[in-house]
Amino acid sequence: METQITDRLELAAHFVNSTNSPIFLTGKAGTGKTTFLRKLADLTHKRFVILAPTGIAALHAKGVTIHSQFLLPFGTFLPTREPEGNFSSNGNFFTQFTLGRRHPLNMARKKVLKAVDLIIIDEVSMLRADILDAIDYRMRSVKRNFEEPFGGVQVLMIGDLFQLPPIVKDYEWQVLNKFYKSMHFFESQAIRQSGMVYLELDKIFRQKDEKFITILNHLRDNEATAADISFLNTFYKTEEEIKNLRDTIIITTHNYKAEEHNQKELAALKTKSHTFEAVIDKDFPESLYPIPKVLELKEGAQIMFIKNDTSGFSEYFNGKMATVKTIDGDEIMVRLADSSIEYKLRKEVWENKKYIINEETKELEEDVIGTFEQYPIKLAWAVTVHKSQGLTFDRAIIDVGQAFTPGQVYVALSRLRGLDGLTLRTRIQSHVINSDRDVVNFTQTTQDQEPLERLLSLHQRRYMARLLESTFDFGEIINSLQTFSKDFGGTMEFEDAEMQKAIPLIYEGFLQEGENTYKFQRQLLQILQSNEEEKLLERLEKGSQYYSKLLESSLKNILIHAGEVERFTRSKSYLEGISEVELMVFKKLTEVKKVTFLVPAIFNGEEIGKMDKVSQELIDLRLALAQEARQAAKENPKFAANKTGRKKKEKGEAKLKREKGETYEITYELSQSGKSISEIASERGLAESTIRGHLAKGIAEGKVSIHSHLSQKEIEEIGDLIQSKNGDIVLVRQEFPAKFDYGTLKMVANYLAGLEENT
Asked: What confidence category does residue 271 fall into, taking pLDDT thresholds of 50, 70 and 90?
């Protein structure tokens, strides 16, 4: 369902795109927080990951869990360098010391976190302060920046603190209270150090009834009056009256009550029972299941949809009620609530994904590692307050007489569109209406925040200064090269002099620029301070041109060296190290190219958006440099073939055995042997996205058949989309980010290009 963008939502986009400040985007239920999250991919030029505290919340946000992205152990984090034994003998605690040593990040996750500019955390009301501090420590370590919270990366937190609170056990709190006032995320040491912009969305889209909105606000703010409670209790109905209600769901406090009621109602139906088992492919753990693996239905069952319609026709939405009319084999017909429309159910797919760096484009991408396919419905005579979060109902029976956590009454009532759909199964008592005192106090302190427009201007100024300083700082690259030399300096000894000097020469080149970059940074900051806009933009343009050439040259040399090393066996870890250095150089080149667009846009108050053109030019540049480097490595006389076609072993060669073929050729051979993309990736120890990149190249060269990996239907569907965008696969990727990855689009694009050449 489309929601209009309000002024506050536009302001939120400006804070994301033109500042680096931590942001807490909040608002009452139904104000458009989820809509903003959905639109963010099309609104920002920053590389981001979407995270959530739980698996179900991550699925809903179309992201990944915090624990999986940061490889955090399950337990309690203490924000200190001391051993955890100093605080507790319980084994569930860990500190900065143990996090870094016993639970290190792998290379794939490091690459992703090194590349990100923005971390988005959804459902932040459930996020504990200690977990946010664990994220902070991980980011400082990965970025090698211990001076700034989250290593200098922007954090956008989205949620409503008056909804589900963080969960902490008594034995945990006995230790955690030495570090925190409460477990809410805003008490984390990282946020207390950095501060944050509090941005509350104020336009409610779900409810239109002003009286209902006023009462909900009173409940939320712990200000419900006797008159409010008395008015709500006029909606109480007896069990006899409730029996006659149709297309109405009960929202209750306890899971066992909801489950018992659903099973009781299902058993009462005299129709035949049918079961439908989900199709689970690859990695999709049970903790992520959006609904039980086996769905039991009968004709006459009351159900609700648990996913928005992805077909584009918007026949249903998350929380839409319906009744099962007929079941014939796998064909299920339902009658949608509030209409006589009958709808044939179709299965939906939920994706378990991880973030990766595409080795071909160096772009941050989503890699689907498993799927769960099932009808997007569940039995819906009853649901818990907890599981109703994020849903919208036209009618509901509220049963919150046993509310046991702060905010439950508010959450349950706020699921409704209006009072005309409200029924109370139990009268509301004043003692069960309560909001978390820490949350209320925190919200009250935000009233002292300066006006958002002034804050935006202030943070934009700081962001520009940060951009001018950080863009022309090669510290991150130098650190990567130092780490690389430390890790591999003694283990990879090349006899060939040129190969021996390759990385040291690149390192030396960046070191020599140190004094120049420092002077240039100071100069830019002084011009900014004196408000000489034209002069600043002129110097910025010249500096960007100069440093772009330096970075492009370094990038090409890194790629040439990687191409040479790639021909040897036992070089996988060395190549991974080079890849990390290359990523840092490419990231810096991206920053240098983008800064000449960002700074003038901020000066002029313009919307920045995704900067697609710049991104595509950078992808094309990287691919072109990689092609040149491969060609240069191929033509190098050190690797000339003899008459037998085998590589000659020359005097100046490295002390490594050569591989049995180019890395691309190996992929081509495996493809020709009938192996699938996932099988090739598994055998080669590479990401599937990398293999797709190899295959795209093989298709262009006529060495791989696209039909070995894609059906004719898929080729035609993707081909039509590419042609509808005039061949621009980046536009297709943006429009269908979860459906098509860059490698698959490139495979089809290359196939189509080959067809055109042959006609």
From this structure: very high
